[in-house]
Amino acid sequence: QVQAVESGGGLVQPGGSLRLSCSGTGSAAFTENVVGWYRQAPGKQRELVATLTTWGSPNYGDFVKGRFAISRDNVKKMVYLQMNNLTPEDTAVYHCWVPPSWGQGTQVTVSA
Questions:
Q1: What angle do CA 6, 12, 17 make, to 5 degrees?
Q2: What is the tens place of the pLDDT at every residue in 63-90?
Q3: Could you tell me the end-to-end alpha-carbon distance of the chain, in angstroms, rounded to an integer?
Q4: How far apart are CA 34 and CA 7, in angstroms?
Q5: Dihedral, CA atoms, 76, 57, 3, 107, nearest 10 degrees?
Q6: Sheet hosting strand 78-83, strand order edge to edge
Q7: Three-state SS across the chain?
Q8: With contact defined as beta carbons under 8 Å apart, do 96 and 108 qualify?
């Protein structure tokens, strides 16, 4: 059974950076699937942050504006999200998606 487990969230000041990691344990078809990151802020719907195809083509939410980068390691079955120039509006729970599973999420808080 696929388990998506995130790590790397935390508290960061505006303008700072964080790198999120996600382990796709048990995913026998990891190399065949699109993977991604979504986020959900309090009182808001879950929204796309980034997805990445098996051949390395990324897709980002409009709000990313070049600040984030998604990557994957198919050997280790890992998905990463490098986030730079963070703003308070990026505060949310970030969920990893490794089909067919969703991770429990990791909290990212951007505050001075």
A1: 75
A2: 999 999 999 999 999 999 999 999 999 9
A3: 40
A4: 20
A5: 100
A6: 3-7, 18-25, 78-83, 68-73
A7: CCEEEEECCEEECCCCCEEEEEEEECCCCHHHCCEEEEEECCCCCCEEEEEECCCCCEEECCCCCCCEEEEEECCCCEEEEEECCCCHHHCEEEEEEECCEECCCEEEEECC
A8: no
